Amino acid sequence: MGSISELLSKHTIGELPAPANGIIEVQSTATLEEAFTVLSQHNILSVPVFDPAAGTYIGFLDTRDLIAFAVFATEEDLQAARLASGGSCPGVMPAQPSTSIDRLIAAAGKSGFSSSTATQGGHLAQSSVSVACASSPAPAANPVFDLPNLARRNPFRSLPADAPLLEAACILGNASSRRLAQLGPDGRVCKMISQSLILKFIDNNLSKVPKFANLVCYLKNRSSLLQDIMSFLKTIRQAEIEDRAPVFSCHPHHTVGHVVRLLSATRAHRLFVVDAKQAPLRVVSIRDVLKLALDH
Amino acid sequence: MKVDLDECIERITRLELLDISLINFLCESMKELLLREPNVVHISAPVTVVGDVHGQFYDVLEIFKVGGKCPDTNYLFLGDFVDRGHHSVETITLLMCLKLRYPDRITLIRGNHESRSITQMYGFYTECLAKYGTAQVWTYFTDMFDFLSIAALIDDRIFCVHGGIGPTVQTVDAIRAIDRFKDIPTDGPLADIMWSDPDPVKEDFSVSQRGAGFTFGKRVVNRFCDVNAVDHILRAHQLCMEGYQILFDDRLTTVWSAPNYCYRCGNKASILEVGENLERNFNIFTEAPESKLEAPAIPKVVDYFL
């Protein structure tokens, strides 16, 4: 056996270890606060969401969805404050620009904003936290921020136990698929397949791919794993058509709101906090934001 | 040092590299010239506007065939002269020589790739090292980039910039006040001008997925045009498969001048001819025959360890 692809094609996802503490999942009827609390308490990045009425999984809830919600909720909060300052409006959320994310999530859940109903143009939309007053133009369509709709942003994909690891690796290699599940005989998730799990498998089987193990690279483009990281990054970055900033960063004076927006826009997991000379000071991550939201 | 710029232009057109000391002299001369140019350069129509060219030298020569030679045609280049393509050195050397030779006939404004950190990542640094055996040439060029103007106004009616606008640069006066003589930072007004993009779906500013700059919508564009008494915004920075894109009820245009970008995108390119009465005409072209023979700028990247 020579290549990683040969190795992965000869083994199945059923051979990967199941999680020691079992599978964590949430039901689609949970509130956003309950769901994000599950992520935080179990120190996990995402969780499958199960719809008991339909008897099926509808997607994954990801910590990144909290970022998206925070950006949306903050913008809605500011919009509400603007409208409130111009006169009374039915159903306006409290005009408190400093409202914490936690209170926004709780308010969205308690006031019925999270139920899925159609938006009614020109009137208060129960399906979202957006506000429409009769005197203002109908708002642009807003995303619905409840658990089912957030979960559907991350499509649920699964493979059976006898699916080859190669197939799982190809799916996860596609940028749009970050999560993959293995379903058990009962149709419930029994294992979450991640890139790191596959990497661990490769690590445990390096003896079967001696060329790769000896760092004589078996990448098709023949470039060496011994290349320096900057050369590697140049190759990766130039493969992308759209330019991106070389480093995603923020400054100490930037607000948490700015960090949230930047994490959401770039889909990065973390930002460097840099000084005026671009020297790194700290790192701020999605998990930090999640802790802030739930502990604040 | 006395330099025959016509000879330099002739040599570089034949892809004959100029020696390091000559590059140094030309860059220093360029800096002296650019020091006298304001942040926002005023240009009179007619002028032909060119978007990103990204080191695609044969396609730059094609631009001069299609649009007319300089100085017979006035040109405004909107930045991103280097990176990605195989001939960034030749491209920037040619444009620099043309600017020095015909300073009033060609205007070069800065793009986000005219920056140290970006050129280290996207090819220009590597190319300088490969062609000259030293990074010193890269240093000369990037020092010169710090002096490039950052915007232009055609007859005070058409605002031209590489990327776009941002929350801190919503007036032309604000752009005039920027300290431009430095590397492009990752945030702030200079970054916003170099990195921002229009968003046809939105109305206002949003943080950009590029990690620098903002996206801006129709309301922002209308407000900018009204406040600054301009009719139109011309910019580059984004690949357009048809060579150009017009947005926001004809108030903003993206011009893209690198055909078959990265030798693999299969796109058309355009240059925008702005006539004496500010009428706009797109001249669309495809890659030069010599460019067709160029290998892709980077080897095919495997998705995974497969």
What does this protein look like?
The complex is a heterodimer of chains A (296) and B (306). Chain A is flat, with a radius of gyration of 23 Å. Chain A is an alpha/beta fold. The termini of chain A are far apart. Mean pLDDT of chain A is 72; it is low at 87-142 and 215-221. Chain A has a domain at 4-80 and 208-295: CBS-domain (Roll), CATH 3.10.580. Chain A contains eleven helices and nine strands. By secondary structure, chain B is an alpha/beta fold. Chain B has one domain (44-294): Metallo-dependent phosphatases (Purple Acid Phosphatase, chain A, domain 2). Chain B has helices at 5-13, 20-35, 57-67, 88-101, 116-122, 124-132, 136-145, 172-176, 189-195, 218-228, 289-292; strands at 40-43, 47-50, 75-77, 106-108, 151-154, 158-160, 197-198, 206-207, 214-216, 232-235, 244-247, 252-255, 269-274, 280-285. In chain B, the strands form three sheets. In chain B, strands 1-5-6-10-12-11 form a six-stranded mixed β-sheet. A five-stranded mixed β-sheet of chain B has the order 4-3-2-13-14, covered by helices on one side. In chain B, strands 7-9-8 form a three-stranded mixed β-sheet. In chain B, helix 1 runs antiparallel to helix 4 (88-101), helix 2 crosses helix 4 (88-101) and helix 2 packs parallel to helix 7. Chain B starts with a helix and ends in a 14-residue tail after the last helix. Mean pLDDT of chain B is 94; it is low at 299-306. At the A-B interface, helix 1, helix 6, helix 9, strand 7 and helix 10 of A face helix 5 and strand 8 of B.
